[in-house]
Amino acid sequence: MSNDRLIIFDTTLRDGEQAPGIALTPDEKLAIARQLAKLRVDVLEAGFAASSPGDFEAVSRIAREVRGPVIASLARAHPDDIDQAYDALKEAERFRIHVFMSTSPIHMEKMLRMTPEEVLKASVEGVRRARRYTDDVEFSPQDATRSDPDFMIEVCRRAVEAGATTINIPDTVGYATPSDFVELMKRVYAEVKGDRDDVVISVHCHNDLGLAVANSLSAIHAGARQIEGAINGIGERAGNTSIEEIIMAVKIRQDVFGVEVGADTRELFETSRLVSRLTGYPVQYNKAVVGRNAFAHESGIHQHGVLRARETYEIMDAESVGQRPAQIVLGKHSGRAGFADALQRMGIVLEEESFNRAFAKFKQLADRKVHIGEEEIRAIVEDESVSVEGAVQMVGIHVEGGHDVTPTAEVTLSINGKVETFRGQGDGMVHAAFAALRTAFGLDARLVDYRVVPVTSGADAMAEVNVVVRVGDDTFAGRAINTDVVEGSAEAFVEALNKARSAAG
Ligand code: KIV
Ligand code: ZN
Known about the structure:
Elements: E1 7-10, H1 26-39, E2 43-47, H2 53-65, E3 70-76, H3 79-89, E4 95-102, H4 105-112, H5 116-133, E5 137-142, H6 149-162, E6 166-171, H7 178-193, E7 200-205, H8 212-221, E8 226-229, H9 243-252, H10 254-257, H11 268-279, H12 300-308, E9 329-331, H13 336-345, H14 352-368, E10 371-373, H15 374-386, E11 392-400, E12 408-415, E13 418-425, H16 429-441, E14 446-454, E15 463-471, E16 474-482, H17 485-503
Parallel strand pairs: 1-2, 1-8, 2-3, 3-4, 4-5, 5-6, 6-7, 7-8
Antiparallel strand pairs: 9-10, 11-12, 12-13, 14-15, 15-16
This protein binds 3-methyl-2-oxobutanoic acid and zinc ion.
C-alpha cells in the first residue's frame, strides 16, 4: 500500500458492539461483516474471540465466509487470548491479531495490578506469541493518552522489535484534543516508526468530548496511516470515531489530508442503515454523511440555491454516499407489478419467497396508509430480510385500556402450528402485551431496552420498535416495524423471545 493510502480499520463488530444494549446474533454480525466488505474497508475487526463463545463463533464464521478485508480479532497480551484469536481466525484469507495492554498508571495500578516492568514484558511476549501465527500483528497501548508518553513509547518500540507491524494509539477515554494528540502522534511517529517502511502508525479515538473524528483526522498530519472507528460512531460510552465521517472528510478534503481510501463511498448509507437496524441504535437525523437530513434543505433560500446549482449548499453529492432523493410512492391500488417495479428501481433484489412475504406486508400496510414511500418500502423489505423464523408466530393482538381501566392485552399466537390466545395486564398496553407474551413463552424475560423510532413522518408514520430482553445471562434483540406501536412492540418482543427460545434449544 502506498504511503498516501489511509487504511480504514473498522471495529463496528468489536468496539462498536460493546455499546450498551447491543446484542447481535452471529447471523447479524455476518450480515454486517458482508456489508463492510462491500464497503471495502481494509481491516475488519470481527470481535474479541476469547471474550465469549459467541464472539469466538462470530469471528470464526466471518473469517471463514467473508472475503476482501483483513479479518482481525482483539486479544489481551495473554497466551490464551492470542491462541484463541488464532484459532478463530485461521481460516481467513488474510488475518491480523490485535494485541493490547494498558500502559497508563491508573490502568496498571488499579485494573491490572501490574508494575510497568511487568506490562512491558507481557506486551513483548504477547506480540511475539502472535507473530508465531502471523506476520500481521497490531499492538495497542490501551489508555495511551493518559500514559507517561516516555513509557508508552518505550512499550511500543519494544512491541515493534518483537514483530508488531501496526502500532495503534488509543485515546481510550476520549481525553485528547486535536492539538495535544497531534504532538503525541508526532513523537510516536518519530520514535516508534522512524524510517521503518513496514510499520504503520494507527489511531483509535473515543468520543467522550465529541472530538474522536477531529482527533483522528489530526493524526493524519502526524503521519498516521490507519484510522480505527465504527459505522455510525457506535461504541463504548459516547462511541468511537465515525468511519463514514473519516472516509468522506479525507475524500472531500484531499487538499488538506493528502491521503486516499479504498472504500466504495456509495455503500456508506446502506451500511449505516444496516448497522442501525440490527443494533437498534437510531442514526440522529442531522448526522453528518448518513443522517436522513444530511442532504435536506429546508429554508427557501437554500432550496432556491440548490435548485439552481447543487454546489451552492452541498459539498458532496447525496448519491456519492448512497443517499437518494425519495421519489417512489405506492398506494392501496399498487399491485404486484407496481411493487416489483418499485423494488427494481430501488435496486432491491428479492428471492420469490421473500418477495411474496414482503408484498403481503406491503398490502397490509397499504390498507392502513394512503402513501407508501421509499423509506417504508425499504423498511418492509429489511424487516423481511432479517426476520428470524421461530416456532412462534404472532397471529393477532387485541388491547383494551383507558383512563379508569386496567390495560389488558390478548395476544394470539401460532405455536408449532397450534393457535392459542394468552392474556396479560400491565401499567400500559405495551406492558400488558409483554406480560401476555411472557406467559405464552414461559420465559422469565427482563426487558432491558425498548426504543420506538418513527421511520417516516406524519400521524400515520410507521414506527420501528427495538427491544432487548435478558433471559438468564444472555440478551436477545428483536425488531419490528408497524404503523401500530403496540402491535409492533409485541412483534419485536416475539422476535426476541423466539431467539431466546431457540438459544435454549
Ligand atoms: O479503546 C481502546 O483502548 C480499545 C483498545 C482495545 C484498542 O478499544
Ligand atoms: Zn476502544
